[in-house]
Here is the input.
Amino acid sequence: MQSFGAPRATTNPYIRMLDSALSSTPGVAHLRFERRRALLGRYDVLHFHWPETLLGGSTRTRVVIRRLFFALLLLRLRLSRRIAVVRTVHNLELPNDVTRWERKLLHGVIARSDFLILLNDQTHVDGRTPDTVIPHGDFRSWYAGVGVLPGHADRDTIAFVGLIRRYKGVERLISVFRESEASAQGMRLRVAGRPTSTELAEEIRKLAGEDPGIALDLRFLSETEFASVVTASEGVVLPYRFMHNSGTVLAVLSLNRPVLIPRTDVNEALADEVGPGWIRMFDGDLTSADLLSFLPVARAERIEDVPDLSARTWEEVGARHREAYRSAIASRRSSRR
Here is the structure.
């Protein structure tokens, strides 16, 4: 059983593609999350992704009910001698916007985990829990399925695309773009995605000012709209203040566009994997020099027509999850002995 229910149109594409992959993987009876069955039903493995998503609610009453359910679920897992708990380590840290009670519940999931799935070799965990690496699958089949294929890009246009959070550095990107006078040199910047607060949206509008080279589209983007922004740009800049696992980077590469991202061990390994020219990195804070050199260098260095994502097919991802579940069950049985 997964920790997610039936995917909706707004569900994270990673979850939607994993849901499809597991449904078609031989040897896996794929169950979506159902609260009654989670508490009372029979299943061999419970696989958590972002467990904090089980705690949210639109009203105070729903939040309290979901917290109580989560606590009961943890109690069942602690008492159960047969259910193995698998956790995919999407993030290194717990969310900052959870309460003390919620943090305690999330630590309960961490403590009860029998097996971990890591998305890259650079994710370092406690070393006591068995784990395996299953790379994030690509997005090529996903975008082909929604009818989006890489097309013609507007020359000298770069973009930021995706949900806008403080740590993603969009404010810095706009400031650097204006300070470098990039628009005077013919470069254009598109910023597309929904800010997480009205205050952040207003700050972004103020920073952009009346610069004719900056276009803002501050709203939720459908998958088709997301892909259209990427493919209409020659490259995408993701000036995150912190980046570990990024599905957005893989989405951009799946649409055959180069990216400018912070230098990390994970990103350096990904750059080696996909081939020359597709990933450019900057050190520290994004600078004018990083921005102005991005597109010319990316154009000159690319050797292959498409980045190499052959190790990230969803058929392989599904098969490797099956083996992870078998290992988790074996680990659980071993701990019982």
